[in-house]
Write a structure and sequence with these properties.
The complex is a heterotetramer.
Chain A: H1 8-30, H2 36-56, H3 64-89
Helix pairs in contact in A: 1-2
Chain B: H1 13-46, H2 64-93, E1 101-108, E2 111-115, E3 121-123, E4 125-129, E5 134-140, E6 145-149, E7 154-158, E8 164-168, E9 174-180, E10 193-198, H3 200-209, H4 215-225, H5 228-232, E11 250-252, E12 258-260, H6 263-271, H7 295-307
Parallel strand pairs in B: 1-5, 4-10
Antiparallel strand pairs in B: 1-2, 2-3, 5-8, 6-7, 6-9, 9-10, 11-12
Chain C: H1 2-5, H2 22-57, H3 59-65, H4 71-96, H5 100-130, H6 147-183, H7 193-217
The chains are: A mainly alpha, B alpha+beta, C mainly alpha, D mainly alpha.
């Protein structure tokens, strides 16, 4: 069994950080940062998700295989999102590239 | 076309290019298959087990140089295929910007409705002149179809809700088949027809034959009816971009992108104006026409708007 | 699928016959759970891809819908779910230490918080039902310019939060089985794998919500 | 080599078949070998249901005006596609041979999660029954690709019921993949390092990666399609602001890697057969193993080649075209390595090896025509025509089904404890090879001539090639029925098989009795030599 037992204090700190980040993301969404609203919201969410994964799901002490599985999951999600967006992003481009 | 012909009838220059690439691929394909069949057959016979207690052969675990060789070599051949294919793909799907003969094709469940700028309409029939680039503007009223002419080696899915275009320059007069290549329901296999390629003289004669109210006039009526003229032509307050002389030219948008004012751009700006706002103009001014103008009306508006941008004097070479 | 994880103790504290030792069994369960969570990432990933595409195509329509999203309930729900993750991780910790009473208390707390989340979610859905914002024949939208595009956003809203709620309900079911097993002394310092696995599952569902909240609730351009 | 028991006692010894009888011992078993047999019988049933639809299609295509009404033909090709893809090709080798052999090959007593393995079979059967219910009520006419907006708005057939069937059976595939990954990682016998794993296990490990990472995406796509069909909210319906190309993206994100789920296990079987019947170590073991993983990873980057003409932007098409050429290289490496393995080998012509010859030849043709389809300008002309039909049947039927038949014959002694009749089997293999080529080679010519796919009626000039194709199909049908007969006969009345009839290497042949007992080994196996050590070299040799 995973022998190391984590102190309640650390869990409480992580819990506090997550609540703080939630409040921050709501507050940030009230400001008008134009394009940065989306980027800020997603990056705060990524930070929160990493905190939950590292501390609560104990990926910190996990075997390298578990970390590989987590990495693979995120990498494949990235493949799906990025390659689908290559189509939608490049639809409006100038139709005829004269270099070809 | 003979039964066993590996090259069907060819009616355009682009078809010849595609056939040349196909021939190259055939040579590579048949060559590689022959090599594999030859070696498998050779080894199978030469090293067959003569009798049951033959000594076990010595292990050969592999050779790095050989592995690299038969990875890199095929990749180089593939690069040729890729580049050649991509070039032809761009050439066929990018219509020349000026003086093309535009034909509007609308797919509807189980028929092709063809409209010519001069107003003629046909069902499952397409007449095109030789020696001149013909641009097809494809739309669909219901599901996804695909306008496929094997003689030109070209097809494009006709996606409802957007315009697709491709072009060809017919060379050989004759009648060639049109198919629907994307499954679209019960009579998908009956949704075909004929394209008749005629030399320019006969074509001009045919063109003057049927005359309905030309699409341009009907487009102008709609242009008035939906109130486009009040902002886009006569209005000088600068609330909206003028539509004179814009077709086929690049347009700079408010987010800095440059987009070509082609049929797809005009259609999107009619149905969903906020998608692309021209630099210097405000959003949420023009009403959304999504679901209010049918396909036919859109095509007529398109022809009228294009007529507002008279082609530049014939002298200038069309940039292809 | 979930019951397979609640393996019944046979001899050496929960060791199943085909494993050599309990370390191998625990490692198998952990990797198995994480591979399952990767399938969940790809499952929700499909909807996130659809959301990303449509938000790219119709930014204005999506922004206009934020007025109808109840950010307060969303915010409270996020806090509730984070709190439930906290109690869940304390439950796993007490299972590690073999404190049966603490384990049950924290599991019950997590269950309560999960139910609070689902009740608030019901309140939100009811509010949308009353406003005719449920996609389908009865859909209405104040701003006629974005009728179709808003309906797509609400479709994605209900699809994503609905699928998330289903996962919450399954999680609640698993928590109940855990509480019953804990009450029956099935777990010990040597074997508490189901608690840890369901903990991972619960934290994953929390992470999905951590992404759903900003993407669905906080997209409005402040007026 | 463990001691050879005299024939008479083999039957008496308890093995996984005679340890218990009665339907409970089958329907509630957690023994991976019995679950493999459950899968074998259900998959064979679905294969012949799908095959019946194919016969119906070929009869209809005998004449330009067709035998059936349009709707009937549309339902025939749809159901042929759905049954063959989701209920035969995806589960076939992993669920039968994979389930049976992987635990034995890695030296374990069972898979990591035996009860999940049984759950996987039940999900497969429930999904299958739902799909059959949809067929019984009139079937579905959208094609196995379910393209919107036709499937979401215009088709009035049982789309949702079929989608639920496919959705449920998808989870069966996920769970099998999950089981294999965990088993290979955590339950290998002492000494069984990654470098000594049989290539059969490497192939299935790569397949499991795809099953686990790809299948959930089609699950959610079918859920969205079902919701769209009920609510008409417009997510895939262009009239309501949606984008049908998005459905194609999400669908093909799974469905192209799915074709690698189908072919990788076939390659895995062929690696084993070629090594055994050439009595020689696989040439370039590391390259063949790594190319399985490369196919699994690159397989996820190429789905856009299904959308070249579908309205995808030209730049995305160029990216996908280039990536599609990249994914062809690992497959080419495998074919070259198999051929090189035969060099200076001692080759015998038993049935599995005949199927392996067939596989290498036909898979090469299937793979090369894949390059035609990856070339943009050619794909514009030949996509959605019979050229594509011929391409994927060359890979699926010429490749996968040949490997499946080869694998069934190769491990039949280990599974049943009996030998199959060699001459009948060779005859059947020959018929399958001839029938297959006569069926599908004419379709390449039809395709380039421009005959579109999914056509109930076709212009008269295509009739001659279609008649040839139908003739080939009837020969192929005979080729598939023959093994059913003699294998069923051999199961009961075939001669008793010795423990290692082919003198093959590998734990399943050398250290596990035939047929294996419930826990596969009498004593815990320890691996001391590299895989395919046919030449008997003692020490670990530097891998090629």
């Amino acid at each position: 069994m995973s022998q190391h037992v984590v102190s309640v204090k650390l869990y409480a700190k992580v819990f506090g950080a997550l609540l703080a980040l939630t409040i921050t993301t709501v507050a940030v969404s009230k400001l008008d940062l134009g394009e940065f609203n989306v980027i800020a919201a997603i990056s705060i969410a990524v930070i929160k998700a990493t905190l939950v994964a590292l501390f609560f799901m104990d990926v910190r002490h996990a075997t390298s295989l578990t970390r590989l599985v987590v990495g693979a999951g995120l990498f494949w999600l990235a493949i799906l999102l990025l390659l689908v967006l290559t189509d939608y992003a490049s639809r409006g481009w100038f139709p005829g590239p004269h270099w070809l | 076309m003979g039964v066993f012909d590996i090259f069907p009838a060819r009616a355009s220059a682009a078809a010849g290019n595609v056939d040349a690439l196909y021939a190259f691929l055939l040579v590579v394909g048949i060559g590689m298959t022959a090599i594999i069949f030859f070696f498998v057959f050779l080894f199978a016979v030469k090293y067959r087990r003569r009798n049951a207690d033959d000594p076990a052969p010595r292990a050969i675990h592999g050779s790095l140089p050989l592995e690299i060789a038969w990875s890199v070599a095929p990749f180089l051949i593939m690069l040729v295929m890729f580049a050649w294919g991509a070039k032809l793909y761009f050439d066929n799907y990018t219509p020349p910007l000026r003086d093309t003969f535009d034909v509007y094709v609308t797919g509807k469940q189980w028929m092709w409705k063809v409209q010519y700028p001069t107003g003629q309409r046909e069902i499952n029939e397409l007449h095109v002149p030789t020696g001149r680039p013909v641009k097809l503007i494809l739309a669909s009223e219901d599901v996804i179809h695909s306008f496929y002419i094997p003689a030109f080696r070209l097809k494009h899915d006709v996606v409802p809700g957007s315009y697709q275009t491709y072009w060809f320059e017919p060379t050989k007069p004759g009648r060639y088949r049109i198919f629907c290549a994307e499954y679209c329901g019960t009579n998908h296999s009956d949704m075909g027809g004929w394209v008749t390629v005629m030399d320019p003289h006969d074509f001009a004669e045919w063109l003057t034959g049927g005359t309905g109210g030309s699409m341009k006039e009907q487009g102008e009526k709609l242009f008035q009816q939906y109130g486009c003229v009040t902002c886009h032509v006569t209005d000088r307050e600068g609330r909206s971009p003028s539509l004179l002389n814009i077709f086929g030219k690049p347009v700079v948008l408010d987010d800095g992108r440059t987009v070509l004012a082609d049929e797809a751009y005009i259609r999107e700006s009619i149905l969903n104006p906020n998608a692309k706002i021209v630099k210097g103009y405000k959003r949420d001014i023009m009403p959304v026409f999504q679901g209010q103008i049918n396909e036919e009306g859109l095509l007529q508006l398109m022809v009228y708007i294009k007529s507002l941008s008279p082609p530049v004097s014939a002298g200038k070479e069309s940039s292809k | 699928m979930a019951d397979a994880k609640a393996a019944v103790a046979v001899h050496d504290a929960g060791l199943r016959h085909h494993f050599d030792d309990s370390a191998q069994q625990f490692q198998s369960s952990t990797i198995g759970m994480w591979v399952f969570l990767v399938t969940e990432i790809m499952f929700f990933g499909g909807m996130f891809a659809a959301y990303t595409v449509y938000r790219g195509l119709y930014p204005d329509a999506f922004a206009s819908t934020s007025r109808f999203m109840n950010v307060t309930i969303g915010g409270i729900n996020t806090a509730v779910l984070i709190f439930s993750s906290f109690t869940m991780v304390l439950a796993v910790r007490s299972a590690q230490l073999g404190q049966k009473k603490a384990l049950i208390i924290f599991l019950v707390l997590t269950l309560i918080l999960g139910s609070v989340f689902l009740c608030l979610k019901y309140v939100e859905y009811h509010e949308k039902w009353v406003d005719h914002h449920v996609p389908g024949p009865a859909f209405q939208y104040a701003d006629s310019r974005y009728f179709h595009q808003a309906q797509i956003l609400f479709f994605l809203y209900f699809a994503m939060t609905g699928m998330h709620a289903i996962h919450m309900i399954v999680g609640a079911g698993l928590l109940i089985t855990l509480i019953v097993m804990a009450a029956r002394n099935s777990f010990s310092r040597g074997w508490y794998t189901p608690v840890e696995m369901i903990g991972l599952y619960w934290h994953f569902v929390d992470i999905v919500w951590i992404f759903l909240f900003p993407l669905l609730y906080l997209i409005g351009r402040p007026k | 080599m463990s001691t050879m028991l005299p024939f008479a006692q083999i039957e008496a010894r308890p093995n996984y078949l005679n340890v218990d009888y009665g339907w409970k011992s089958w329907l509630f078993t957690t023994d991976h070998k019995r679950i493999a047999l459950l899968y074998l019988f259900s998959i064979t049933a679905f294969f012949f249901v799908g095959g019946a639809f194919a016969v119906g299609m070929r009869l209809n295509l005998l004449t330009p005006d067709g035998l059936f009404a349009h709707d009937t033909y549309n339902k025939l090709f749809t159901m042929h596609g759905i049954i063959m893809v989701f209920f035969f090709l995806v589960p076939s080798i992993p669920a039968t041979l994979g389930n049976f052999l992987i635990p034995i090959m890695v030296g374990a007593r069972d898979l990591a999660f035996p009860r999940i393995n049984l759950l996987s079979w039940y999900l497969y059967i429930i999904g299958g029954v739902i799909a059959l219910a949809a067929i019984a009520q009139g079937g579905v006419d959208t094609g196995w690709t379910f393209y919107a907006p036709f499937s979401s708005t215009y088709s009035n057939t049982h789309v949702i019921l079929t989608a639920i069937g496919v959705f449920v059976s998808g989870f069966s595939s996920i769970l099998t993949g999950l089981n294999f990954i965990v088993t290979v990682h955590t339950m290998r016998a002492p000494g069984m390092t990654w470098g000594r794993l049989p290539l059969f296990v490497w192939g299935h490990y790569a397949t499991s990666l795809i099953q686990v990472l790809g299948t959930p995406v089609i699950a959610i796509t079918l859920v969205l399609l079902g919701l769209e069909r009920i609510l008409h909210a417009g997510i895939f319906d262009p009239a309501l602001g949606g984008d049908p190309v998005l459905f194609q993206h999400l669908f093909w994100f799974y469905s192209h890697p799915a074709v690698y789920i189908m072919i990788l296990p076939g390659m895995a079987v062929i690696s084993e057969i070629v090594a055994c019947f050439s009595r020689k170590a696989i040439f370039g073991y590391t390259f063949v193993a790594i190319s399985s993983i490369a196919i699994a990873v690159l397989g996820f980057l190429v789905w856009g080649h299904h959308l070249f003409v579908a309205g995808q932007s030209m730049y995305a098409s160029v990216v996908f075209s280039f990536l599609s050429f990249l994914v062809a290289i690992p497959s080419a490496i495998k074919v070259f390595n198999w051929t090189a393995t035969m060099y200076k080998g001692s080759i015998s012509y038993e049935t599995p090896m005949l199927y392996a010859f067939g596989f290498i030849g036909l898979f090469t043709m299937g793979g090369l025509t894949g390059l035609f389809l990856a070339t943009l300008a050619i794909d514009v002309h030949v996509t959605d025509t019979y050229f594509v039909i011929a391409h994927f049947h060359y890979v699926m039927v010429g490749g996968m089904v040949m490997a499946y038949m080869g694998g069934i014959h190769f491990w039949f002694p280990k599974i049943s404890g009996r030998m199959y009749p060699e001459n009948w089997a060779r005859f059947a293999a020959l018929i399958v090879f001839v029938g297959f080529n006569l069926t599908f080679f004419p379709q390449f010519i039809l395709g380039y001539q421009g005959m579109p796919r999914r056509y109930a009626h076709y212009p008269p000039e295509f009739q001659v090639l279609n008649v040839m194709s139908t003739a080939g199909a009837s020969i192929l049908a005979v080729g598939y029925v023959l093994p059913m007969i003699y294998l069923a006969w051999a199961w009961r009345k075939g001669p008793k098989a010795p423990q290692n009839p082919w003198n093959a290497k590998g734990l399943e042949w050398e250290q596990s009795p035939t047929p294996p007992p419930t826990f596969n080994f009498e004593t815990q196996p320890v691996v001391t030599e590299p895989a395919y050590n046919y030449s008997g070299e003692e020490e670990e040799v530097q891998r090629g």
